Structure formats: structure tokens, C-alpha cells
Amino acid sequence: MLKLLKLIKLFLWNCKLDIARSMEYRFDFILGTVIGLAFSSSGPILQYLIFTQTKGFPGWNLEQIILFQGILLFISGVKTMIFGSNTYFISDIVRQGDFDRLLLKPYSPMGIILASGFSLNNIGALIPGAVIMVYSIIRMKLYIGFAQISVFLLAVIFGLLLYMGFLALYSSIVIIVVQIGRLDELMYQFLRFGEYPVSIFSKTLKTALITFIPFAVWVNIPANALLNRLDYTVPVTFAFCVLFFYVSLRIWNQCLKKYTSAGG
Amino acid sequence: MNQYIIDVEGLNKVFKVHKRDKAGLLSSLKSLFSRDYTLVTAVAGLDLKIRQGEIRGLIGPNGAGKSTTIKILSGILYPSEGKVNVMGYTPWTQREEYVKNIGVVFGQKSQLWWDLPAIDTFALNRQMYGISDKTFDENLSYFKELLKIGDVISKPVRQLSLGERMKCEFVCAMLHQPPLVYLDEPTIGLDIISKEAIRSFIKSVNRDRGTTFIVTTHDLSDIEDLCENVSIINSGNIVFNDCIDKLKTYFSDKKIIEVKFNRQVDPALLEGFKVISGGPFNANIEIETLTTSLQDEISRIFKILPVQDINVNNINIEEVIKYIYLS
Q: Where, by residue number, does the polypeptide cross the bilayer (chain A) (predicted)?
């Protein structure tokens, strides 16, 4: 627990430094935010077009899908703002031998990696996501009580845990193979399975998305929490997120022993 | 209590390295499907003991195993075999606790945030090492005074000269008052003034606080200026481990007689001497004192050559080290 608190403090320090750095290069910050907003908005627009030009998604009407897209934008914003720099950071430091620096600090190196991912430039998706989400809630006159907010927040926390698990796996591969340029793209494409309602997938894939690869935690569970239509699978998905993170950390610790550094 | 701050026994580190025999595209493509690996022994049964409060030089040719040894001692790498005890810790198994007690400066790597003033990285380190405000302020004042970097720490790191940046790297590595500091080529690329400032800083901290320093370098003037003891590593093992004076008198049975002539000398006149270097107006003559009397040889030089000036020296320390590297 003490270690976790130390890491949270470290994360907050890194946030402060990243904000200070963003302010040093204001134009880069503004441009990065605008471009981030443009890119992250293209996904929901595309899905809106798909929805309106096809038979839509089974079990979801247009208003619900707009809420789903708002949550997707919001969660993506949270993920990329907190961990946005991670894949670049780990690839860069391992290739250049700077990973040594992390091992000289009195923290778990994975803790430092995860605490170093904050990127203010990625705030672009978070704000419109929150706006669309609130707008949808008001428009649909949804009842939002303590239970809904609790499940929503728990889903965000377990979703971040799952994402950290993926970052740990990614880092493990980088530690072993050093240079693997397109791996992050591959990972992000795979993670996109979590950007659609689970109901559109086959039964097998649906089961996988709430168990072994519990991507349902990112958007499906928060959306269903706000729409007040949760079922017994929620705690199962949460448990699998914890399991995934735990296994990823074990793999990371094994790979760390094989770290060879760079020549002197 | 163990009098040694570092106690290493039988340290081994073997790397598995991908080997490509031929250059060119075909060979690169072949390596995509099938690769040959070779085992490279970077450290081979190394034993090392270092006393508390020492400034120990660790030198050796490129690829000798110095950096690998330092990386194992600082907890970065796992060894393949061997025992290491540093202040009661095994670096790679107790890394998180252990690194609170060490500082590391890499001459070719930086731990400062490039776009921000060094003072921001210092503040981050205060957080990481849990340094109290009082200790932080005292140490920062001490280092600022010693290194004369009062104004430097408030400028963005990217605007600093290499010398100024290195001074900040030292502060960063030592704010938490570690009793042991590893310095990996700390003066590389620095001008003579900055080198002197860094060396003087190391000596002051060693004297004032009893901090132990392990210095790896290719600059022998660092070793001569800073270290009482020196360990030479070659092919992954210690081949010389003694005080620097022993290194200076390593070839005690050999002397170099440095002679300056008052006119140009015909090379035929020098045929009876073992001339190791020189020109028309000077010569460095080596003699073996076990077989030749120094007095007789000097008399012979005065008799045969037009001497303007003469000096008798030990074999140059660089020559000694070169000899040890090549042995």
C-alpha cells in the first residue's frame, strides 16, 4: 500500500513536470491538443455513419450509441492522458540503454514506467468525451444514482488496471527483443475490439471479451452502468482484469532478469 | 563489521550474442530465418574488495568488462554466477533498498529532464528518495557552493554546456547522500577546467563526507589525480590490483634516459643504445637496470653523444598500462 502511495506521488510529480514542459512549448501543446481532438473525434463520427447507414448495433439505439461513443472518447482520453507516452518511453529508453536509469531508482521499474506516461497533449479526447456523455445522460433523462456512479468508477479503475497489464506485456516484449517498431500499432489495433458493443460479436468472442481478454470493462460496462442494465458478468470481468494485470507483472519480472543493457 | 564496502567473489557474466559472419543484404536476410548465437563472457570469475572511504580507479581496455561489472554492482544486471556483498546487500535481489544507498553518474547518459531546469529534476529526486526538506536544502547549498552552480541550476538543461550539465548530474546522483558512488567515465568530453572542477569536487566530498567512489575512466589523469588504488580489468578479470605508486614503479628494473642533444646527431652514433623514440635532436633510451649499471650507461652517453640536457625517468604509466592491457 505504501509502495502504491509512493507511486501515485511519483505520478503526480511527473504530471507537474510534464505540464511545466508543455508550457515551455505552448505551440506544440495547442497543436497537439487540436490534432488529438480531431483524430479522436473521427472514430465516433465513423461509428455514427456506420450506425445510421446500416442496421445499427443489436441492442443499442442511436441515443445509446452516442452515449457509448461519449464514454469511449472519455475513457480513451483518460487512458492516453495517464499512459499516453508509455509505449514510446519504454521503446526509446530500452533501445538507447537508458533503461538502466530506472533500475537505479528505489522503485519497481514497471512502477516508474507507468508513472511516467502522463501526457497533457492527450487531453483532447477527454473533454469532448465528458461533454457528449453528460449531454446524452441529460437527453435520455437517465437516472444516475450512487450504484451507477460506483460501477462506472470501478469500471474505469479496473479498465486502467487492464490497460496497465497490456503496457507491462508490451514492455516485457521490448525488454527481450529491444527494437520492434510496429508492435504498439498491433497492440492498439487489437485493443480496438473494446471500442464496440460486445453484443455485435459472436458468442465465443463475447465470452472472451468479458473473461480472458476483458475489454468489456472499458466502454461496455460503464455504458451499461449508466443505462442501468448490468448483469452478473460484471464482477467476473473485474476479476479477470486483476488476473490479467497480475500475470502480466509476473511475465515482466521474468523478462527483467534477461535485461542486457547496452554497451558501455 | 566488514571493513570492505564492496566484496566480490567469483563474479561471472555471460551474454548470448547474435553472431553474423558476413556483411551485406543476403546475410541480413539469412539472419531473419536462422541465427547463430555465441556466448560472450564479459566478466570471468572476478574478485574485488574495496574499503570504505576509498576512491578506487577501475580501468581497462574497451570491452574488458568494466561497465558490466559496474552494472552488476549497481543492481542493473543479474550476474550469471558469483557472490557480491555491497554494504550488506546483494544488489540484484535487494535492488530497491540497495539503490537508496548508492549514487551513479554515467558520463555518457543523463538523468536530467532535458527541457526543464535541473532544479526540477533535483526536486523529483527529493520525492523519489524521500529526502527531508532540511537535508535537501543543506545538500543543495553545499553542492552549489562546491561546484559554483548557483545560477546554472535554474536554466533549462538543454541550454547548459557539457561541463555545467555534468556538475548537475553529480548533484542529482548525490542529493540523497549515498555512502557509495559509481562514476562511469565522469570526465569524458570535458575541457581541462571542468575536469579539474569535477575532480576537486570528488576529492572534497570524499574528504568531508567519507563517500566511497568507484571511478571507471580511460583518462589516466583522472586516476593519477583521484585514486590511491587502482584495479585493472582485462578479459573480464582483475589483472592488477594495487596502489597507483606500484603502477608507476611497475617496471622497477627499467629506466628511460631522456637525452637532448646540442646539435643534430648522426643515427649511427645511437646504434649501441636501445632507443625507443626520438629524433635528430633528442632520444629516449631504455635500459635494463638488472643487466646494465645506470651509472655506466650515463657515462657512456656523455662520452659518445653531445648532451645538452639529461633526465632519468621510470617507465611512463601509460606504457605500463598498455603493457598490462596487452599481456
A: 29-51, 71-90, 110-135, 204-221, 233-252
